[in-house]
Write a structure and sequence with these properties.
Layout lengths: L3 H13 L33 H25 L1
Helix pairs in contact: 1-2
C-alpha cells in the first residue's frame, strides 16, 4: 500500500516531468524515483526516498525561478 505522502510526491513528479526510464529498470533517469514499470508511465516513489525527492522538486522550482528572473533582467 502506498502512503498518501508518496502519492502526493508521485503526482508532483508526474506534473513536473514524464518518467524517463531506460526500458529495463523502473527508475526515472531524471529524478531517480521508482516508476510503475520499466516503461515508466507514472512515478511511484518509495517511502525511503520521499524527503530527497521533495527536496529535488523544491530545487527544480528554485532553479526555474532563477532562470526566469535572469531572463527578465536581460530584457
Amino acid at each position: 500500500m502506498v502512503s498518501p505522502e508518496a502519492t502526493l510526491i508521485g503526482a508532483r513528479l508526474d506534473e513536473h516531468h514524464s518518467p524517463e526510464t531506460n526500458g529495463r529498470m523502473a527508475i526515472c533517469r531524471r529524478c531517480g524515483a521508482q516508476t510503475d514499470s520499466p516503461l515508466g508511465l507514472n512515478h511511484v516513489p518509495s517511502e525511503g526516498r520521499l524527503k530527497r525527492l521533495d527536496e529535488w522538486l523544491d530545487a527544480q522550482l528554485r532553479m526555474s525561478r532563477m532562470g526566469h528572473s535572469r531572463g527578465l533582467l536581460k530584457k
